[in-house]
Amino acid sequence: MNRPLLLAVLATLSAGVPAGAMAQGVERSATARAADAAPVLVSADQWRAMAQAGDRYPMFAAERQRVEREVRAAMAAGINVPQPRDLGGGLTHEQHKANYKAIAGAGALYRLTGDRAYADFARDLLLEYARLYPTLSNHPAGNSSVKGRLFWQALNDSVWLVYSAQGYDAIRDTLTAEQRHRIDTDVFRRMARFLSEENASYFDRIHNHATWATAGVGMTGYVLRDQDLVERALNGTAKDGRAGFLRQVDELFSPDGYYAEGPYYQRYALAPFIIFARAIQQNEPQRDIFGRRDGVLLKAVDGVIQSSYAGYLFPINDAMPDKGLDTEEIVTGVAIAYAQTRDPSLLSIAEGQGRTILSPDGLAVAQGVATGTARPFDFRSMQLRDGPNGDLGNLVFLRQGGANGQALVMKNTQQGQGHGHFDRLNWLFYDNGQAVIRDYGAARFLNIEAKNGGGYLDENDSWAMQTVAHNTLVVGEKSQFGGDWHVGEDHPTTPLFFNAADGLQIASARLDNGYAGVALTRTMAMVEHPDLAFPVVIDLFRAKGATPTNYDLPLHFNGHIIKAFAAEHSVRERPVLGDAAGYEHLWVDAVAPASSEARSLTWLLGGRFYTYRFAASAPISAMLVESGANDPNFNLRREPALIQRMQGQAEASFFSVLEPHGAYDGTAETVSGATSRITDIAHARSNGAEVIVLTLVSGKTLTLGVADDVAATAAHAVTINGQAYEWTGPYARFDR
Length: 736
Prior knowledge:
The protein is an alpha+beta fold. Strands 8, 9, 10, 11, 12, 13, 14, 15, 16, 17, 18 and 19 form a 12-stranded antiparallel sheet that branches. The chain has a 5-stranded antiparallel sheet with strand order 3-4-5-6-7, with no helix packed on it. It has a 4-stranded antiparallel sheet with strand order 22-23-24-27, with no helix packed on it. Helix 6 packs across helix 8 (about 175-195) and helix 14 (about 290-305) crosses helix 15.
């Protein structure tokens, strides 16, 4: 069209139109375009409120300063988006991790300060990713079943997407249309397609890796105003609800908020669950995501906090023992949960964490802490049921004496997928701020490249996962379920009873299929008595098999041995206990021959003494062993254990008591109560029930009766040393 004709058409179109109408149309178009780029994960109004109020609350101000230091350091170092080549812990791996943190941090700082330099830095990083990402194929060092593009495994790519989406959302309206299109298309859409379409079976798994992937894709969908991506994330690639984030919420948590893989992975998975849930609540509140399944995501935050002692998570399954409540994921979970519930006890956890997050949730936490709203968190005795319907076992906590008092953990859960260990009916004990009876956790040096690229070591399979590496019964020197976690997934543990009454807290569970033809039942109680300074742990472990076999019961204790039972020591050489199922990693330091007499072992830990008194229904030998044999690369920690061994029996009852006592002050050079206040332990079984009798220094006795029949109306009677004990129900206590 020539210019005169174009002018004529425009004149005709504008004839009779009020002055300024066309200009208003242009303004409306500009407004619409700006609205399409405005932040949606945290609204502009919420950012403004944080910017105006944040400096008034020390915790929020300190977090902003911390992020400012990190981002300013990244800005000073310059844009660095390297070609991926390294495993976890390597230079390129760590740089891409640092970059997503910088993108998220810079986006938040731009909104809080108004300093355009932060937005420009995040923009330039993302534009560099827009240049690099389309050129990438599978990671060259990838050794995961699903390789990433930026990282060696797709999981890390998903984490990158979750955090970078938050930073991009905060700066997206500062970009030109061309810049937005390029980053939208060549970074976020490509990554979403890689995770959800090119790896659809991975995306549709019911697993924490898929949780991160669905969270990243779903948040990308909200930022890009792409409801199809959101629906794919929420309901799976087929968008039929048989996979996706919502199905994961329904399948991966029990009704009590316990996560199938245990506290360590609950900590890790909590971040995508809670972060994406907050995004859903922000953009689609009608879904009531935090109300789903009676608030299961909020229960999950409470559950992971309950699964800790002295700030550290209970290290069951594949877990690092140094992971605690101050990790990024739990800091995020506490902030978002507090914003949803206003539970003041969460503020005491935030105080312990010493920080919060740069979000409206973090501001709420900082306000609550600054105004003195915090209340102590109620670390309480409880059971967390396992499985989507709560019928696949339980994790039991028996506590006394407050947050750093006594805590007994009994693991009666399901397998826990591939990260689960073969340790059903395992137990741990904490006291005086210390892990007294401990679990090895995972054999791994996280992100230390020299140790298998930071991944799991071979010794994770050969030692850490094996039954002998835990505090539970080993049958025939083999691990539960033959060391096959797929088999374990099909056979849950059966809780029998749980009660947390004053003076006597008790739990019991049974495992029928861990070993062919052998039923295992364990009952554990934490009992108080006026003549004892602290609660004691009574343990009764019963095995019932059809044919004679060998039983080993390990106890992985922590501390320096003060007094041990009489034994023959390995002086000139250290024999290795076995050649498979974890036994190949145990050196034998001392052996006591088989005996029916009760023995004891006393050790010192953290200024307190612990005496473990033990015996069994048939003669047992006792061995002091240490981990670290057959370990040429020094991958294992050297940790002691006691093993009780019974040979050639079909049925067995192992009974014991762990007594904390006394005090040692190295500074004042004082010792008190170093001798056990229990002088003997005895046991008798008859008519489908058994009793354990503790004789105290005072001459009094403390007796626990336990029955096979757990019916509340069942009557039982056992006689020991001429003394009859009668009771109704699964258990009873007698003081005489």
